[in-house]
Specification:
39% of the residues lie in helices and 20% in strands. By secondary structure, the chain is α/β, with parallel strands linked by helices. Bound molecules: 1,4-dihydronicotinamide adenine dinucleotide (NAI) and magnesium ion (MG).
Length: 500
């Protein structure tokens, strides 16, 4: 614990870490009913530095009941849209005012570089909350000129309303803990839903600090609840709960399928944002240095623990050597270190399990004949580090080419022509993101419709914006978050037909 009292942490973060951690249920800070706790591990040192309640089914029941009550009674259901907008803007201001502390908590808990947490996670989160605040006053239905054939002597008037879907259960992963909380809370709070958030067991801390800010912003008790706990207990109880109307899940495709099935049993609305194996496609006119830097950012950002990480690099054979050399040089030069150190470029992976998983994939690549031009091993010393790794000499049927590794590991492959690369890029069960590197407008435009992915970037990768819908084709998920599209996930449409 002592190292966290050092100069790298602001006074506010130290204050937060020193407090006992409780869950927010019905506006009150509560321990788990069963009394259990979860250890929170710093992945840079492997030390336990905090404990949070290990919430279980009974705690989910309490939180869902509180969210239900807040949805149906009291101030919240009567609140004017403009007041929901004002609250969400106030919350965004509070997140912004506390951005350094939140970034430090994120860096300690997840391992990510604090500079990136501040510049990406927190910045996107504040923008997104403000963007969603604007939607609170713009949720609208339509009026219809109906032509009812049966009763021609009567006049009818038809209109639609969009109503909040109800109580939302949000289950989120550990790679962007706060940002994923915001992706769920933003539309839920803008549209008048209430919610229960279940953060990942690896990274529960920032959700608890965020919950403090939600209270400070002035949200009525029970509108926003947080239950920390394991996936197979608290998470499973939330996904299968009959007291919620919607599940919003981000995480692995494997668990996403379980969550989707549990939700369907109750006909609970469900949106799933799942895994990926996103291609980076470099055309023969691309500047090799630009492509190498872009490919590095595509895979090494957030230690490669990004659902849309560019983990398969396809380079036209005329540029393959130069791009892959440039990428390997960048990889070999990146500074590994603790996330809270501002000099760090690559932090540790989130957990021992994730480090072992990623190293296992690298080994399987070697066993099947791949070669590492950079990395290929754990980082030195304590902490769950994996060196940024560039693999070549792969075949398209290898595990490292087919499966989501979720670490700083890219497979680089040459190709001959555009039809071939489009086919290989799509030869995956996933379809979350893809990037194309070229200044040849015509060829880029011809390639974009061929790529089966929810987002296609051109001359960039991993660029997200509050206004742009994000989500997956195929096994990368169901539904689109952000943008106007997310409102469809958090509202129901009601048709009203009046005989005049
Ligand atoms: P996970 O999918 O198990 O965890 C995500 C969330 O689901 C966490 O909050 C967890 O507590 C919860 N959860 C787990 N089991 C559950 C269940 N039975 N019912 C309801 N909720 C449950 O992901 P995990 O185990 O942390 O990582 C495993 C692999 O999944 C990673 O190596 C990576 O490949 C992939 N992954 C992908 C993510 C993405 O954004 N695409 C995010 C996290 C993991
Ligand atoms: Mg899991």
């Amino acid at each position: 614990m002592d190292r966290y009292k050092g100069e790298l942490l602001s006074a506010n973060t130290r204050r937060f870490l020193a407090q006992p951690k409780r869950m927010l249920i019905g506006g009150e800070w509560q321990d788990a009913a069963g009394g259990g706790t979860l250890d929170v591990v710093d992945p840079a040192s492997t030390q336990v530095f905090a404990r949070v309640p290990a919430g279980e089914a009974a705690d989910i029941d309490r939180a869902v009941a509180a969210a239900r009550k807040a949805f149906e009674q009291g101030e919240w259901p009567k609140m004017r849209p403009v007041d929901r907008e004002r609250l969400l803007l106030r919350l965004a201001d509070l997140v912004e005012a506390n951005a350094q502390e939140l970034a430090e908590i994120e860096a300690l808990d997840n391992g990510k570089p604090v500079t990136m947490a501040r510049a990406v996670d927190l910045a996107l989160m504040v923008d997104f909350l403000r963007y969603m605040a604007g939607w609170a006053t713009k949720i609208e239905g339509a009026t219809m000129d109906v032509s009812v054939p049966l009763v021609r002597d009567r006049e009818f008037f038809g209109f639609t309303r969009r109503e909040p879907v109800g109580v939302v259960g949000a289950i989120i992963p550990w790679n962007f803990p706060l940002l994923m909380a915001a992706w769920k809370a933003g539309p839920a709070l803008a549209s008048g839903c209430t919610m229960v958030l279940k953060p990942a067991e690896e990274t529960p801390l920032s959700a608890l600090r965020f919950a403090e800010l939600v209270l400070e912003a002035g949200y009525p008790a029970g509108v926003f609840n947080v239950v920390t706990g394991h996936g197979h207990t608290a998470g499973a109880a939330l996904a299968s709960h009959t007291g919620i109307e919607k599940v919003a899940f981000t995480g692995s495709t494997e668990i996403g399928k379980l969550v989707g099935k549990a939700a369907l049993d109750n006909m609970t609305r469900v949106s799933l944002e799942l895994g990926g194996k996103s291609p980076v496609i470099v055309l023969d006119d691309a500047d090799p240095a630009v492509a190498a830097a872009g490919a590095a950012q595509a895979i090494f950002f957030n230690q490669g623990q990004v659902c849309c990480a560019g983990s398969r690099l396809y380079v036209h054979k005329s540029r393959f050597e130069r791009v892959v050399e440039g990428l390997s040089e960048i990889a070999a030069g990146m500074k590994l270190g603790a996330g809270i150190d501002p000099a760090t470029q690559i932090g540790p992976l989130v957990s021992a399990a994730q480090q072992q998983r990623v190293l296992g994939y690298i080994r399987s690549g070697f066993d099947q004949g791949a070669r590492a031009l950079a990395g290929g091993a754990a980082g030195e010393g304590e902490g769950y580090f994996v060196k940024p790794t560039v693999l070549v000499d792969t075949r398209d049927d290898m595990k490292v080419v087919r499966e989501e590794i979720f670490g700083p590991v890219v497979v680089a492959m040459p190709y001959d022509d555009l039809d071939e690369v489009a086919r290989r890029a799509n030869d995956t069960p996933y379809g979350l993101g893809a990037s194309i590197w070229s200044n040849d407008l015509s060829r880029v435009h011809r390639l974009v419709p061929k790529i089966k992915a929810g987002t296609v970037w051109v001359n960039c990768h991993n660029i997200l914006d509050a206004s742009m819908p994000f989500g997956g084709y195929k096994q990368s998920g169901i539904g689109r978050e952000m943008g106007r599209a997310v409102l469809d996930l958090y509202t129901e449409s009601k048709s009203v037909i009046m005989a005049l």
